[in-house]
Amino acid sequence: MGRLLAVLALALAPLPLAAGEASGIDPNEIEHCLSRSATDGTRLDCAGSVQASCLARVQKAQPDLHPVDRQLQCIDAEAQWWEAELNTRYARLRKIERARGAERAEALKQMERDWISFRDARCAYDRLTNGRGTGGAVAEPLCRMQETARQFVLLGAYLRDRGV
Q1: What is the pLDDT of residues 21-76, one digit of tens each?
Q2: Of 131, 134, 138, 155, which is the most buried if we count CB atoms within 10 A?
Q3: 159, 153, 157, 164: which is closest to 33 by C-alpha?
Q4: What is the pLDDT of residues 122-137, one digit of tens each?
Q5: HSE value, Cβ hemisphere, 13 Å, CA-based, for 3
Q6: How many helices, marked H, and strands, marked E, lie in the chain?
Q7: Cβ atoms of 90 and 115 closer than 8 Å
Q8: Rg of the chain, C-alpha, whole Å
Q9: Shortest CA distance to 78 belongs to which of 11, 143, 126?
């Protein structure tokens, strides 16, 4: 019930008109973090790096919005960014693997399907183990955002290995 209320609040709340995007995140902040990262470990550290600035923008734009709803809004906005970028990387890698053979393309497709199942199961576990209230309601989307960023970094390593 608590999650449903949080989702409804997000759906009904006006989005902030702040720097970057209407969501409150500034994609340039993530891109800047990634561009100055020399290793996959530091690239992965970019996941969540915009949360503080997003929360500040959303709080300024929507001071009456509950803090948990602000947090969920920022997590969702960042997760959408990682998802879009992951899809772009996946499409690039899939094109390369198709050119290298059907078996490689099929293996990549299966890996992504299995990854989605793993991500969903892991994040459901995070929700359960962080409580059925606010803790779980925040833990699950945060986990999904972090796992999506992790997969983005992994696919980037595959692309680098293939000279892209």
Answers
A1: 557 899 999 999 999 999 999 999 999 999 999 999 999 999 999 999 999 999 99
A2: 155
A3: 153
A4: 999 999 999 877 898 9
A5: 12
A6: 7, 0
A7: no
A8: 17
A9: 143
Q: Where are the domains of the chain?
A: 2-161
pLDDT reported for residue 164? 87
Q: Both tokens of residue 133?
A: 């209230």
Instruction: Provide the phi-psi class of 131: left if phi over 0, else alpha when psi is between -120 and 50, else beta.
Output: left
Residue with tokens 């690039």: 92
Contacts of 56 (CB under 8 A, 6+ apart): none
Structure-block tokens of residue 158: 């595959």
61: three-class secondary structure by DSSP: helix
SS3 category, 25: coil
- Rounded to whole angstroms, the Cα distance separating 103 from 97 reads 9
What the block records as the tokens of 135 is 């803790």
Give the position of tokens 């997760």: 79
Model confidence, pTM: 0.83
